[in-house]
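Hi W., the pyridoxal-5'-phosphate complex you wanted:
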Amino acid sequence: MTKEEFTFETRLLHNQHKMDPVTGAVSVPIQHASTFHQFDVDQFGKYDYARSLNPTREALEDVIAELEGGVKGFAFSSGMAAISTAFLLLSAGDHVVITEDVYGGTFRMVTEVLSRFGVEHTFVDMTELEQVKQAIRPNTKAFYVETPSNPLLKVTDIRAISNLAKEIGALTFVDNTFLTPALQRPLELGADVVLHSATKFLSGHSDVVAGLAVVNNEELAKRLGFLQNSFGAILGVQDAWLVLRGLKTLSVRLEHSQKAALKIADFLQSHPLIENVYYPGLTDHPHYQLQHVQAQGAGAVLSFELKSEAALREFVSGVKIPVFAVSLGAVESILSYPAKMSHAAMPQVEREKRGIKNSLLRLSVGLENPDDLIKDFSRSLDQLGRNELVLQQGES
Ligand SMILES: Cc1ncc(COP(=O)(O)O)c(C=O)c1O
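Structure:
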């Protein structure tokens, strides 16, 4: 059986870095050296200075490129470093069409930093192809997609956007943080650059901040490699090793968490105190079909709305199991409040325009037994119901 025949799960373990060729070690060695001795004045070896290339970081870059089906991978000190460096592929006077409910940090980068350097942007609902077409200008050089989007889990047709981009000679960037290559491989659908906050599912244990990018051709590989070295926001070797270790269990973690997410989404949807549930694994999600055509599942993140911000506050205070925190994609379930966390960088008017209400919570499902989570949520909601009843009786 050749390596090319291995399924994704097997390739997570049996890839080109399954063992160290020198010692046979089954874990990639952590090479701390910042500089490398050169044995010849005229001809330097493959490694000279660790910002440019380091064997531990390189192993992670090779593995992510292989898993995403790309030509070359790049590891950065955070997801935002990966995203910001990829944006440096653009120049002053260029225009980017970007998904409207994009991650708050990306919103901040585009609106408050790139704009100062003359890179223009238009936010659109990328699920509406007509809106995307109308946003195109003569200087449009990139489309920026996040799918499923954060926090409303809207699904964008990656193939359709990539085709549109190709027609006008623009690039397609896809933030694949929510699904990872275990469930969605944007380069196979025509995208040019895949971006990750590897802080999330790829590493999976809430113990590292990291970013990755993968490109689909040699020319982009050269350009992004040049920018990675020039800007210098590279990933440190300990952190690269942590991501490599986390990757080995990616499939089993996601399989459990995805199944649990569906069970929890079903529970929340049937609960009278929950106004809306956003999860593309629910058959009545408006993009259910598209999600299951372009990806192998709906992932392990869902969002839901309570009746009011006050109800949200009571619900959160009654919940015991998930950590209430920024971030997602970890072994422990994480309950987040987008308005004050992931999307705090977005002004309230902008959030409201995008439907990100102050009564919205996002849940990243971890490895707990989903029945325990459901019991925990159910108790908190019961308490909320009792409190509301007391309040109503007091008023009447
Ligand atoms: C979808 C998405 N993209 C990018 C980022 C930024 O990644 P990092 O926090 O690793 O810089 C995040 C962080 O939450 C995210 O959720």
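Residues 370-395 form the longest helix (26 residues).

W.
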